[in-house]
Amino acid sequence: MSSARLIERVSVRTVLIQALTYTSTFSILMCLIGCGKPFNVKEPNLPPAGYAGKTSVGKVDVQAEAITDEDFLYYSFDANLIAAGVLPVRVMLTNSGNQDVGLQKARFEIRPPQGRATAAVDARQAFKRLISYYEIKAYNKSGYKKSLEAFSSYALDVKSPLAGGQSRQGLVFFLTSSESARVVGLTLLITRLSSAESREAIELKLN
Q1: For the chain, which end, N or C, has fewer CB atoms within 10 Å of the first or last residue's CB respectively?
Q2: Looking at the structure, do residues 24 and 45 belong to the same domain, yes or no?
Q3: Which pLDDT tens digit goes with each residue over 110-169?
């Protein structure tokens, strides 16, 4: 075999190997980008509570605080909720009575010192705000579902009744501007907590 043909064969082989290497690398990279979770949300591990106040309605005691520690939020949710316009409010409910209390009709709102009240949203809507803010488009359904489930595990459970003598805590999410989330003087308003027919609001200062 002539040296020219040998060089030609070696050159073609080198090109093919490089092409395969680049293709494999690109495929792995795309898999890492598009096949993973939108957010690597950690299991719920809230810091010690620092509730500013306490109030009651019927037999239910309520404590709440706005979580604005952006380092903690980024560590827990793999995202800066405050910057994205999602304000998580930690709520603790305690049923001091003997009868179960239904929570499905409860309505939560936050009100700034000046301006209108904003109603809470469910975890799915808050999660979608994060997806939109970070402009995440490459993910698969499985990864999205796992991230959403992990995110939702932080939410206050209002679907099941609160049994007598029991306490429950979790996050209630609000969509607001990052400036409003950082403002001092936010008030939490809750209606229909002890009775679905009661529209009397209880108020609790968050900060």
Answers
A1: N
A2: no
A3: 999 888 899 999 999 999 999 999 999 888 999 999 999 999 999 999 999 999 999 999
